[in-house]
Specification:
Oligomer: single chain
Distance between the termini: 25 Å
Number of helices: 9
Structural class: mainly alpha
Radius of gyration: 34 Å
Strand content: 5-15%
Helix content: 40-55%
Number of strands: 3
Shape: elongated
Strand order of the largest sheet: 2-1-3
């Protein structure tokens, strides 16, 4: 926006996220001045965030952002449903399962956080196996969680994949329909010489027609008669073509 409006962007940049990141990443230089400031070296980790700046030069990152923005409502809906399911299943398993495994005597779901941890691990079908239900009802809840997890993760993946394929098809289609400007200048006879100039925007596939037109006098005469009714091409005419591709 600063470039478009003509305002100097250096005044606004220090107050942006990437500006603050750059500032924090140079703080470790103070450790070279005084050893007491050596703890500032921890800010070197902030430099990792600076990698995000290079995303502006990558079309792939822009493509992914466009896909996520376009399907944001679907992703939000699935995320809310996953959050609710994690909470409800964790609440159920915490109240159903005993805090101590009667077979091994080990702690199972002693805290609600353990139940949430189990719910997330089961919903994502990771299944570490460090915490697991021992009752029949708990196992049924686990089966439902795994089935729902496969469905929700597959839904998100399919939505994002379909969005990426759609964006790639749009890019390929735009490349195949590269617009070109064909400037046609000429003179025809109709109660005297009549100069004309036409600037025609056409797709790349249509350029072939005008390329053939430029080398065929009979087709040029037909084109003049079609575009300028009453033109007398038998008394002579001239046409010049200039092709400019917007690639």
């Amino acid at each position: 926006d600063s470039y478009k409006s003509g305002r100097p962007c250096w005044r606004r940049y220090p107050f942006t996220f990437m500006g603050a990141t750059d500032l924090l990443s140079i703080i470790p230089v103070l450790g070279m001045i005084n050893n007491k400031l050596s703890l500032t070296k921890i800010f070197r980790l902030v430099r990792i965030v600076a990698i995000l700046k290079y995303s502006r030069y990558s079309d792939k990152d822009d493509l992914m952002l466009r896909v996520l923005k376009k399907n944001l409502s679907v992703i939000k809906t699935i995320s809310i449903f996953m959050f609710l399911y994690v909470y409800i299943s964790a609440l159920m398993i915490y109240n159903i399962e005993p805090p101590i495994n009667p077979s091994t005597g080990e702690e199972t779901f002693s805290t609600f956080f353990d139940a949430v941890y189990w719910s997330v691990v089961t919903l994502t079908t990771v299944g570490y196996g460090d915490i697991y239900p021992v009752t029949l009802l708990g196992k049924i809840i686990s089966i439902c969680s795994m089935i729902c997890g496969v469905g929700m993760i597959a839904t998100v993946s399919s939505v994002v994949t379909a969005g990426i394929v759609e964006e790639i098809n749009k890019i390929n289609q735009s490349k195949s329909n590269v617009m070109a400007k064909v400037t046609i200048k000429g003179v025809y006879q109709m109660n005297g010489p009549k100069p004309f100039q036409r600037i025609i925007e056409c797709s790349q596939s249509e350029v072939g027609y005008y390329t053939q037109l430029a080398g065929n006098k009979s087709k040029q005469a037909q084109w003049i008669q079609a575009n300028f009714p009453g033109a007398d091409t038998s008394r002579g005419f001239s046409m010049a073509f200039n092709f400019k591709y917007n690639i």
